Structures are given as C-alpha cells and as structure tokens.
Amino acid sequence: MKQELTDIHQHPIWGMDDGADSRETMFSMLREAHFQGIKTIVATTHAAPGFHPFNMELYTERLAEAQAFCNLEDLQIRLLPGAEIAWTCQVPMALQQGKIPTIGRTDYVLLEFWRDISWQAATDAVNQLTRAGYRPILAHPERYLIFLQSPKKVLRFRHETGVLLQVNANTILNPRNYRIHRFVEYMLQKDGVDAVASDAHNCVSRPVNLEAAYQWLIHHTDAAYARKLVTFGGELV
Fold first, then answer.
1. Please, which residues have CB within 8 angstroms of residue 93's CB and are 6 or more apart in sequence?
2. Helix residue ranges per DSSP H, 75-118
C-alpha cells in the first residue's frame, strides 16, 4: 500500500503568487499530488505583511475551488489553508487579526526568512511568534547563509527556540551544491529536520515531487523517521 503523504508547503492556488498561474496548472498539480499519494495539502500562498496585502477573500474562494475540483475528480485530497509568511515585524499582528491564515487553522505557521538573515534577527522572529501563541515552522532552512555556515548552531537554535524545520523535497533529490548537500545530510543524521515538503509552484520547473523524496528518505534514513517527515507526524490528520 502506498504511503499517504502530507505536503505542508505547496503553491497550488492559481493567480495569487509565483505558484500556479492558471486553473489548468492548479488542476494538474492536484492530479499529480493524487498520483503520488498525497492526501493532505497545505496551500501556502506567499504573504508578506507590510509589503503587500494578502487577499484573504480571493484566497478563500480559490481554495474552495481547488477543494471542489478534488471532490469532483475523487482525488481524495484534503486542502488546508495556510501561507508561506515572509518575516516582517507586522506578522504577529496580521496573524492575530486573521489577515493571513495559519496552517489548517491551527497554531502552526510557515515562516520564511530572507537569505542573509542574522542569528539575532532569526531568534527574535521565532521568539516573537512563540510569545504570540504560534508554533513556527521554518521553510527551507537550507537557503539561509548562516545555517549553511554552522549546522551545529542550527541544531541549538532549533532546540532553544522550539522552531520546526521544513526542508524542500528538491533539495534532498537535487541539491544545488555540495555545501547544501552536506547541510541536509547532517541535519537528517541528527534528526534535525521536522518535515519535508514539495514547495511545488508548477508542473515543470518546480513540480510536486514529495513521493520521490520519500523514496529517497526510506533508503537513506530510518523508515519511521522518513514516514514522519512526509506526514508531519500525523499532526494535521
């Protein structure tokens, strides 16, 4: 039996960010997710409070459209609201005011940093969200320069702040360079990754590829850990 997967970071909602650019692309991404055994998708459209408004009404409408398509096609996929939130000082208030969605209406939030963030800024951001009652999940830690420079410090950062770390499937399958490969390898060896997700944006250059990453994880990590990474430990079931 194929493992049922949960993709906590995907951009299928069409016409709202650099993800799906049309209904047809959105539908194709959802069909591919079904083919790969993905049963739950968090539709994490980009949000950047203070830089541009998040159109919650349009997002909700198109999320419902995507779910209706899944139901009509019997894809057996549950779509959950969410956002990939670029950190600004306005994020906590925007969340509290309901201007941007949390993951599946839980206290989990998917957070994104700028590439050259400092340790102090990263720590302050996570702590502010935690104090506000949220549980931050940091998207693609393999992109941040300070993390690549000191994987051991990343483990301490994760332990001390309680932040969860989500690595992209494509980074596991096709790391851009040896430094990133070594970072992800080290983090997996130390059980320092909490989720693997596709971060899919389309069907070509950034496709849904979570099942392939799961197969890689089965062969390179403990099987139970591999399942946990691609199901988010069952937290959203």
1. 49
2. 91-96
192 alpha-carbon distance from chain centroid: 16
pTM metric for this prediction: 0.97
> 7 has which bridge partners?
41
pLDDT digits (tens, 9 = 90+) for 23-53: 999 999 999 999 999 999 999 999 999 998 9
Domain extents in the chain:
5-234
For the structural domain made of 5-234, what CATH number should be given? 3.20.20.140
Cα of 42 vs its chain's centroid, Å: 8
CA distance 77 to 66: 10
Tokens linked to 99: 């201007």
Torsion region of 119: left, alpha or beta (phi above 0 gives left; psi -120 to 50 gives alpha): alpha
The answer to whether the beta carbons of residues 77 and 40 sit under 8 Å apart is: yes
Rg (alpha carbons) of the chain, rounded to whole number: 17
